[in-house]
Description:
Helix content is 40%, strand content 11%. The chain is α/β, with parallel strands linked by helices and 182 residues long. It folds into 2 domains: 2-126, Aspartate Aminotransferase, domain 2 (3-Layer(aba) Sandwich), CATH 3.40.640; 128-181, no CATH class. It has a 4-stranded mixed beta sheet, covered by helices on one side. The protein has a two-stranded antiparallel sheet with strand order 5-6. Helix 2 links the parallel strand 2 (29-32) and strand 3 (54-58). The longest helix has 23 residues, at 127-149. The radius of gyration is 20 Å and the shape is globular. It starts with a strand and ends with a helix. Residues 5-7, 32, 34-35, 58 line the site of pyridoxal-5'-phosphate.
Amino acid sequence: xxICGASAYSRDWDYVRLRKIADEVGAFLxxxxxxxxxxxxxxxxxxxxxxxxxxxxTTHKTLRGPRGGLIMxxxxxxxxxxxxxxxxxxxxxxxxLDGAVFPGTQGGPLEHVxxxxxxxxxxxxxxxxxxxxxxxxxxxxxxxxxxxxxGYKIIxxxxxxxxxxxxxxxxxxxxxxxxxxx
Length: 182
Ligand SMILES: Cc1ncc(COP(=O)(O)O)c(C=O)c1O
């Protein structure tokens, strides 16, 4: 399985290219869009849905919702491991995923969290949310630029999303030095 999605990756993902690689090597492609989900939902970053077999996300990062998650598929397909139903039919991938969630790893549904997710999605559909998420990107770009202007090294030189990774090695941030500043 090839996973695209990370905690500190500040650039957009080329899902078309990754799918091409996955198909070449017979790999399953999973996009974990936990961090940029809100930016993707508003069309500000590439959409993994047409290209990845499965997409997972949390609902409490840029989506601004309750703590929770989502597993999504753009298109259903027969599971590649030959898992069958009791009737001997090949299970669809969605059924394998559903089975892994419940009764695989989860029990009773958290109705209040499901309701909160619905509210977060409704908010994400609004123009207000679009303004908000645009501002998130603007803030991150300004912050990255300010760091660069002050001599900090930002990995890849900037950001396409709301994340940035700062290389502090040139700043010799040692505990002993910090103490003298404080
Ligand atoms: C890429 C990625 N996926 C998933 C998660 C899971 O988030 P949580 O532990 O908040 O559910 C994180 C956490 O930051 C993450 O960075």
